[in-house]
Amino acid sequence: MAVTFEEFVKRVEGLDKWLKKNEAKYLLKHDKEIVEFSNEQLLKGKNMKNETMQTGYSKQYGKRRVKKGLQIKYVDLKFTGKYQDTKKLVKYKYGVDIRSAADYEAYLRSCYPDHVGLNEKNAEIMAQIISEEIAPDIKNYLTK
Questions:
Q1: Which residues contact 129 (CB under 8 A, 6 or more apart)?
Q2: How much of the chain, in percent, has pLDDT values that exceed 90?
Q3: Hey, is 46 helix, strand or coil?
Q4: CA dihedral 27, 78, 108, 49 (to 10 degrees)
Q5: Once rounded to an integer, what is the mean pLDDT over residues 3-15?
Q6: Nearest CA among 15, 52, 38 for reference residue 134
Q7: Whole-number percent of the chain with pLDDT over 70
Q8: What is the mean pLDDT of the chain?
Q9: What is the 3-state secondary structure (H, E, C) of 64-110?
Q10: Which of 38, 54, 55, 109 sits 20 to 30 Å CA-CA off 138?
Q11: Backbone φ and ψ of 13, nearest 5°
């Protein structure tokens, strides 16, 4: 049975609420890809605005990194890899965020605001992937 025009209009008006309610489902389905994009950015020393987070390291910390065979020209947030290796999407009441089990995550967030998230290019790629999945569900929501 098709929906009435009045019911269709109500559903269109409620689409934003429906999307908010279901956004985590679609994002969590792509946890691996989103985290990989985020980690790629960090290893290039870029934040989600595609800006260089910081050039160089302190001399003392730079020496430790050089001994481990890591670059020191820009901050890439990799030393042991624990931060990147434990990152995953986590659902919160307000939405979804990328979190790590590393004990120094809060410190990194305070030192490098905007380092967690996707830059515009990567967000567009994920939007294309997710929009192809969500379109049939939106159609069903509006018409059935």
A1: 30, 33
A2: 89
A3: strand
A4: -60
A5: 93
A6: 15
A7: 99
A8: 93
A9: HHHHCCCCCCECCCCCCCHHHHCCEEEEECCEEEEECCCCCHHHHHH
A10: 38
A11: -65, -30
Tell me the two tokens of residue 135. 């379109």
Average confidence (pLDDT) over 9-19? 94
Phi and psi at residue 31, to the nearest 5°: -50, -50
Residue 3: per-residue pLDDT: 84
Find out whether 39 and 84 touch, Cβ atoms under 8 Å. Answer: yes
Backbone phi and psi for residue 56, each to the nearest 5 degrees, phi listed first: 70, 170
pLDDT tens for 30-60 read 999 999 999 999 999 999 999 999 988 999 9
What secondary structure letter does DSSP report for 55? B
3 secondary structure, DSSP code: P
Q: Which two tokens stand for residue 122?
A: 């990567």
Contact status, residue 28 vs residue 128, Cβ threshold 8 Å: no
Would you put residue 100 in left (φ > 0), alpha (ψ -120 to 50) or beta?
A: beta
